[in-house]
Amino acid sequence: MRVSVVIPAYNEARRLPATLVCWREFLVAQPFAAEIVVVDDGSSDLTAEVSQGPLTRVVRLVPNGGKGGAVRAGVLAAGGDVIAYVDADLNIGPQHLLEALRLLEDGADLVAGRRNLGEYATAEGPLRLLAGGLVQLTRRVLVMSAIRDTQCGFKVFRRDLAQAVFARTRIRSFAFDIEVLFLAKRLGARIIEMPVTTTYRAESTFSVRRHLPRFLSDIIQIRLNALSHKYDGLP
User: Fold this and answer.
1) Residue 53's closest CA among 99, 80, 21, 90?
2) pLDDT, tens digit, for every residue of 4-22?
3) Using CA atoms, how far apart are residues 55 and 20, in angstroms rounded to an integer?
4) Strands ordered across the beta sheet of 82-86
5) pLDDT, tens digit, 9 for 90 and up, residues 111-121
6) CATH of domain 2-227
7) What is the distance between the alpha carbons of residues 38 and 75, in angstroms, rounded to a whole number?
8) Mean pLDDT of 145-158
9) How many CA atoms lie less than 13 Å away from 207 in the CB half-sphere?
10) Which of 55, 68, 98, 156 could form a Cys-Cys staple with 172, CB 3.0–4.6 A?
């Protein structure tokens, strides 16, 4: 078995080296083969340069196109039998990968991390908390209600499902996680939510004022895409 870990990164030259050290140390200690695919999403800093190292390939995108587009490029370039994507800030530790692999062995097609949202909310400011609530209400009404935590940056797929989902994705904004889960459901995937522990990182790249309007409009677009049969080959 080979495992690919995709890390989307935009101007992460400062935080990414520590994340990569942690993932490399974890992966080299495992009995399976592994690779890390860092997707430099049009960074203006040295993200691509600091990503070089053992186990690691760098995919460079120009210009910056959004987190959804970066994850899509990384997943489609990945060579693993299992493909995961994780955040560049290491808010969820590598040790969770082992439990996710066990769940895949037991029949899951996709393992989605689920944070303790009560604890996570206490670390967020009131504006971020309000924005998060609005996002979750919109996606539950318009797209899907079955998954409790769509936005957790830790998801692990069987290769065939990952390829089928990301070949169809269209959303490039932070709402891409919702589209990914929606498509996986439509493809009949068995999705398991797995509790994960998180370390809050204050330097999020998500800005409520700048990103929330696009986030909400893209959730609506997912529903419109489905109604207009733009997700080819899906019921």
Assistant:
1) 21
2) 999 999 999 999 999 999 9
3) 10
4) 56-61, 33-41, 2-9, 82-86, 154-158, 110-114, 191-195
5) 999 988 665 55
6) 3.90.550.10
7) 10
8) 89
9) 3
10) 68
